[in-house]
Here is the input.
Amino acid sequence: MKRGLRVILYLIILFFFQVYFLDYLKIFGIRADIFIPVLVTLGLNVSLWEILGFSLLVGFLRDIAGSYAVGINCWLYLIAGGFIYWIAHTLVIESMWNKTLVIIAVIILINFLECGFLYLLGATFNANIFFKTLFSLIFFTFLFSSYLIRLTNFVYQ
Here is the structure.
């Protein structure tokens, strides 16, 4: 089976896992985003067009299951994919801790862009709740990230 098709099937399986099973693991209404560690790992190993395609697929899957306006997650993850590729080809990222720092940076980028998009659509938000949610999301994603990085490396090889 080709590598790209394996990754697409892997992303679809992760989508179903995120939608159906991570609801049981959420705390305070916040569940981990398991796509970000996968995109960071793929961004270190693939070309620009592949990571942008995978990011667009992840954004589309998030739009299907999400409650935001259609297309916001496609743009957010497309920008995040370009950011991951830029970071991967600007800095040397070899250790697990460096990958974790990139994951944290991508989470922060996506959340700030998401708030910007929602503000442009007319929504208001509380900064206190935003930062509590952001740090909780970083913590929960950090818990799953090492396993997802290893699993993604196994699927990609």
